[in-house]
Amino acid sequence: MDVAPPAPVPADGGAGRPAGTVEYKCPNCGGVVAFDAVSGRMRCAYCGADFDPATFQNTAAVAVQPQPDALPPWDGAAPAGADGWEGQAWTDEELAQLRQYTCPSCGGQLVTEANTAATHCPFCDSPTILPVRLTGVRRPDAVLPFKVTKAEVTEALRAHLKGKRLAPKLFLAESRIDAVLGVYVPFWLFDTALAADIAFEGKQITSWSDSRNQYTRTDTYAVRRAGQVVYERVPVDAATKIDNDYTEAIEPFDYSAAVPYQPGYLLGYLAQTYDDTAEACRPRARQRMVAALRQSFAASVRPYNSLQTRHEQIQVTAEQVHYALLPVWLLNTVYRGQTYSFAMNGRSGRFVGQLPMSWSRFWGWLSGLFVAVGAIAGGLAYLALRLL
Fold first, then answer.
1. pLDDT tens, position by position, for the chain (388 residues)?
2. Whole-angstrom distance, CA of residue 264 vs CA of residue 266
3. Does residue 318 lie in a domain region?
4. Of 35, 57, 82, 99, which sits with the fewest C-beta atoms within 10 Å of its C-beta?
């Protein structure tokens, strides 16, 4: 059911609300709406009514604000653009209904709608975070909505933990699982065109023998590959508190489901603001693209016994950068002074994480293994003696 956008709460905050906050309520019953990952629509938790996320998009004039890390237009062969991903500035209404939280322990930056009671940092598990106004941050070009629900994350975590026999029993407590949080993680997405010229040396080795000698012949070939490769939407995590190895491990993200940024998608979740600029993240993106280019060029060469790169020239001919919020389920928990992290792709459900090892369980498992091996060895020895 779609209705006209409800009016925001007045700037004075209304009864019992801080001044300057804005909240969208269900037009049917007045309950608070949140994004539902299953249906992809906004849903009221009280009466069950659902709405199109565009219902809650602000329509006020765009405020002029600087766009950090904006790059010049394409000057060469450009990758295909993403319709509707053009960057815009924050509107006054969006800034009014969003809050930025700073964790006093680790400095992590979070963004949420004004009424979210964020009490734990998803990066260091700190029990308090302090709200400040959202300023000086570029407005996202796009958002990829959550699809995996918290219940599905919980089941995936339980299955992952139960299969790890060497993990401490305390770490497997369900109370740890309940702390999982859905976070829109900031990413810089790089569209880059690379022109490359790579010279290889390939060696083909042939061996044969006759009745008297063994022969080996080595043929050396000069091989060259040149061309242009375009990479689209190469993601780099723009939050320093989140390990890039984790966010890369849960790729790929389904960008076909991404939509132009709308604040309604943040309702019910946390959102991290970027603290790594596009310029700071560009080297990691380039490293990934250059490695993929080298691999694809080398794969195009016919099989040799050995192939070595003798010379290469790789240049960026065009580049464009997008700023997007991508869905990630996060759980950081501290066990005996050590932080252990888990992450799940909020669209595909791809899951990664690390676990501590219980040395008592390890030695118990090793002792059991030795007993089992000893029993098998003893049985084989007894059988051998009987056969003799």
1. 333 333 333 333 333 333 323 345 677 776 767 777 778 787 777 777 887 777 665 423 222 233 333 333 444 444 555 556 666 777 777 777 677 777 777 777 777 666 554 556 777 766 555 566 666 678 899 999 999 988 888 788 777 767 665 455 555 554 455 567 888 999 999 999 999 999 999 999 999 999 889 999 999 999 999 999 999 999 999 988 888 988 999 999 999 999 998 877 877 788 888 889 999 999 999 999 999 999 999 999 988 999 999 999 999 999 999 999 999 998 766 666 666 778 899 999 998 877 655 444 444 444 554 445 555 655 555 455 555 5
2. 5
3. yes
4. 57
Number of structural domains (the chain) is 2
Burial bucket for residue 142 (CB in 10 Å: 0-12, 13-18, 19+): buried
Residue 103 and residue 29 share a domain: no
262 lies in some domain? yes
49 and 98 co-located in one domain: no
Vertex 301, ends 203 and 200: CA angle to 5°?
55
**Which two structure tokens, joined as six digits, stand for 214?**
């063994």
DSSP state at residue 122: T
Does residue 256 belong to any structural domain of this protein?
A: yes
Q: Which domain holds residue 141?
A: 78-357
Co-location of 109 and 40 in the same domain: no
